Amino acid sequence: MGKRSRKQIEGEGAVPGFDSVDYSAEYLSWMTELSYQTELSRRDSYEHLSNCLLSCVSIISVALLTVAPLLFERYSYNDNGAAASVLLASGYVVVMLLLGASFLLSLLSQVRLKMSVLASPMDLNDFVAGEINRGAPFASPMEVAEGKVGAVQSHFESLNRKNEYMRKCLMASMVLLIVAVSVCLFLVCLFSLFEFLLPPFWS
C-alpha cells in the first residue's frame, strides 16, 4: 500500500469545522492592538525628530549669529568694497529666513490637534455593568474583539491624522534646513574662492 499524507489521514471521517478552534477573535484583538501601537510609535518617532530639528536649527542659528560680527567686520566697506558686504548680508538674510521657517514648522508639528480620547476606566466599567444589567453581556470573544475595535477606531483615526500632519510639517522643515545649510556651504566656498584665488575681484 502506498503511504498516505497526514492531511488525508486526519481528514477521514472529520466534519469540516468540527472540533476546530476559531482564532478570529484573538487575531482581530491582536491586530487592533498592533495597529494602534504602531501609530503611537510613529507619533513618538515624529516627536523625537521634531526635537532634533529644533535643536539643530537653534545650534546653527546661534553659530551663525556668533560669527556674524567678525564676518561683517572682515568684509566691511574698506579694502574689499561694497560687493562682499552686500553679498554677505543677503546670504545671512536668506539663511536666517530659511532657518526661521524650519524652526517654526518643527514647532508647529508638535501642536496638539483636536483628538478624540478613549473612555475613562470608570466610564468603561459603567458601560459594561449597564450591558450586564440589561441582559446583553458580551456573549463571545468575537463580540469582545469587536467592542475593542469600536472603542479604538475613533482614537486611531485622530492619531493617524495627527501623525500625517506631523509628517508633512517635519518633511518641509527638513527641506528648508537642508536648503539653508546648502546656501551656507555655497557662501563659504564662494568667499573662500574669491578670498584666496581671485583677490582682485573685491577691489
Quote the beta fraction: under 5%
Low-confidence stretches are 1-19
The shape, in one word, is rod-shaped
Q: Secondary-structure element sequence?
A: HHHHH
- How many runs of DSSP E, i.e. beta strands? 0
Distance between the termini: 103 Å
Helix content: over 70%
What would you call the structural class? Answer: mainly alpha
Largest sheet: none
Secondary structure blueprint with pairings:
Layout: H1 6-11, H2 24-74, H3 82-108, H4 121-133, H5 141-196
What do these coordinates show?
- With 203 residues, this protein is an all-alpha fold.
- The protein has one domain (41-202).
- The protein has five helices and no strands.
- α2 (24-74) packs antiparallel against α3 (82-108) and α2 runs parallel beside α5 (141-196).
- The longest helix is centred in the last third of the chain and has 56 residues, at 141-196.
Summarize the structure.
With 203 residues, this protein is mainly α. It has helices spanning 6-11, 24-74, 82-108, 121-133, 141-196. The chain has one domain (41-202).
Question: Which characteristics define this entry?
Answer:
203 residues, disordered N terminus, mainly alpha
